[in-house]
Amino acid sequence: MKPLRTCVFPCAGWGTRFFPATKVIPKEMLPLVDKPILQYGIEEARASGLDKLIIITSKGKESILDHFDRSAGLERSLRERGKNDLLADVESVGQMVDLIAVRQKDALGLGHAVLMARDAVGDEPFAVLLPDDVILSDEPSLLQMRRVFEETGRPVVALMEVPENETSRYGIVAGEMIGDRRFHVSDMIEKPKSHPPSRYAIIGRYILPPEIFPMLAETGQGAGGEIQLTDALRRLVAEGEFYGYVFEGRRYDAGEKLGYLKATVDFALRHPTLSGEFRAYLQGLFGNGKAIEREAVGDDRIAGRGKGTRQRV
Ligand code: G1P
Predict the structure, then answer these.
(1) How far is the CA of 147 from the centre of ligand 1 (A)?
(2) Which of 14, 109, 182, 238, by CA, is between 20 and 30 Å from 298?
(3) Residues with Cβ < 8 Å from 25, sequence gap 6 or more?
């Protein structure tokens, strides 16, 4: 088995759930406190040992690549003015990664976006990380999944238990828990309208073999009239062992307004310089009630830790 070193970031969507804010600004570039949403995903991939990073973009998303590029003029100006802290921040982002960019010319769906990475990925296993799905965890969620992949050599998707009335928003797996957060997947369905086969939803982290590409190429339109990654994954499931991993961590759907607000609050409450004043501000707003007690305990309540519970935000 070739080593896992590549991560694909589909970033070509319109961001309609955030209109009008994302009419011009890519949703991946909206800030969560002081970093764009995508940067959290890039940092997670790097912390999981992945260093070949492929961004699937579309027209109007140039700022994504600019963000991770050097900015010679800005760096010079900050240096001349002795703003060394700011300079370090700007330089570190510019030197963080070398990205490979591939354009998706038509918005035909997530499966089609991943297919666009075929040549850049080559004949190797790869991860897919959906930047909207921001995960706060002790250990990067992709790294948690990577262990399962390296042990089994089989595909792995991230899973989270969701309430039954929310299953129609996700890819839902069928199969059974086999212990140690592992789930043996026997089938899956994208956004089931009724009778979901379980309450385990696929969250935007996948580790896949290159054999998925010809399957994607043959996948037609599915749910919502789009070429769905889930439909191609079903074929992989039919051909061999396929695992889900119920990751430890708290997941936010930062691609929609409420999830984004929740992520902003939680990340601000953990920010090294903002957390104290921000917590005091919230306390002033709500008094010392239960509303913020959960946040005040900080990292100890990251979902999934300790009692094996999971929490969706
Ligand atoms: C995509 C996938 C879906 C998955 C979800 C997780 O859907 O198609 O299977 O459950 O991401 O966020 P989207 O949210 O892009 O419609």
Answers:
(1) 23
(2) 182
(3) 63
Preceding peptide of 20 cis, ω within 30°: yes
Give the domains, in start order, of the chain with CATH numbers: 6-268 (3.90.550.10), 269-313 (no CATH)
Q: Which of 135, 161, 169, 187 to mutate to test the pocket of ligand 1 (most atoms within 8 A of CB)?
A: 169
pLDDT tens digit string along 37-49?
A: 999 999 999 999 9
Confidence of residue 95 (pLDDT cuts 50, 70, 90): confident
Ligand 1 pocket: which of 130, 199, 253 to mutate (most atoms <8 Å of CB)? Answer: 130
Residue 178 has pLDDT above 80, yes or no: yes
Rounded to 5°, the CA angle 176-177-183 comes to 90
Atom of ligand 1 nearest to the CA of 230: 9
Look at the pTM and tell me if it is higher than 0.85: yes
